[in-house]
């Protein structure tokens, strides 16, 4: 007999949107309040102050009622003018999409290509900027974490590379799939605009995004001529001072954000980062044991939030994902670009713990075999042994 019902909790292992904790869902399940009233102003102030602690900045953070793509547009239009040269890196699908947006906005983009299997090499940035003697490049835009391939780039080192070239370009960083999952320091790392999103490490539904901004970016804003209206920083900064927005913001998302930030600090940001590192390593241990190749070639760029796993020739990853969803009620991330159909991605970010990852990896091991992928059994066990060793070491340290 066919069944039209999927039983139990869905195993959402795409790299965002991530599972929203019940506590956040409950906080959002609340009657509407006046977005020009005193209760709202208090809520907004808590969010506007709290979000700074996540970006590690003392400057204002803009909260947009838009998905991450909106915050990309806000970063570019608030700081640049038509025809400005922008240096970008095609680490994968999202690097390519940000470039496409910059082109549409009338910027002159220069794209540094990669093979989609690595992060950004700071030396390449330094070399290109050193050649730009006339300082025609106005901004360098990179992704901290390329979600489509699972590669993390070294932001502090890229900052040093820009400084070593003595170049004044603005530095813009997309942290949509790294913020609140791995260490990020907007002020200390000298980033001018950081783009963030709600639906990954912050554990919220999609529909909210952020621009953290440096003083240099605020200066650039004064002379930037690209048209901006909905994403205009100035309107926002003016009204945010009293806890309001230039339009009707997503009130319920703010209720959720307030709790999300509280939960991150209750766990402790360093513990949040250590948990993501541990779950990422467990995932890679399983994949390697299975004898499958990780798309990111160089371990120094391994992502703490998402792992892309290549299937052997002759095994279509899209069909594998569809089979796993139907049979085991588990979702994986899709594949893109030159590797479309060749890999699937396991998201291990947001409100996930050791138990959810053990469930995910054991399920994946069974699903791979059911799909006929020739793997060496025991990858989930190897990941479990690793998790046991990590907790054992922590227990010993505490004793
Ligand atoms: N940048 C990165 C790194 C992403 O992962 C995503 C979405 O997953 C985006 C940008 C686009 O964000 P959104 O889909 O919220 O508009």
TrEMBL record:
Pathway: One-carbon metabolism; formaldehyde assimilation via serine pathway. The modification N6-(pyridoxal phosphate)lysine is found at residue 200. SUPFAM superfamilies: PLP-dependent transferases. GO terms for biological process: glycine biosynthetic process, by transamination of glyoxylate. It holds the Pfam family Aminotran_5. It comes from the Bacteria. Its EC number is 2.6.1.45. Keywords: Aminotransferase, Pyridoxal phosphate, Transferase. Substrate binds at residue 345. It catalyses: glyoxylate + L-serine = 3-hydroxypyruvate + glycine. One of its GO terms (molecular function) is alanine-glyoxylate transaminase activity. Residues 32-321 form the Aminotransferase class V domain. Its cofactor is pyridoxal 5'-phosphate. PANTHER family: ALANINE--GLYOXYLATE AMINOTRANSFERASE, AMINOTRANSFERASE CLASS V. Belongs to the class-V pyridoxal-phosphate-dependent aminotransferase family. This is Serine--glyoxylate aminotransferase. It comes from Undibacter mobilis. The lineage of its organism: Bacteria, Pseudomonadati, Pseudomonadota, Alphaproteobacteria, Hyphomicrobiales.
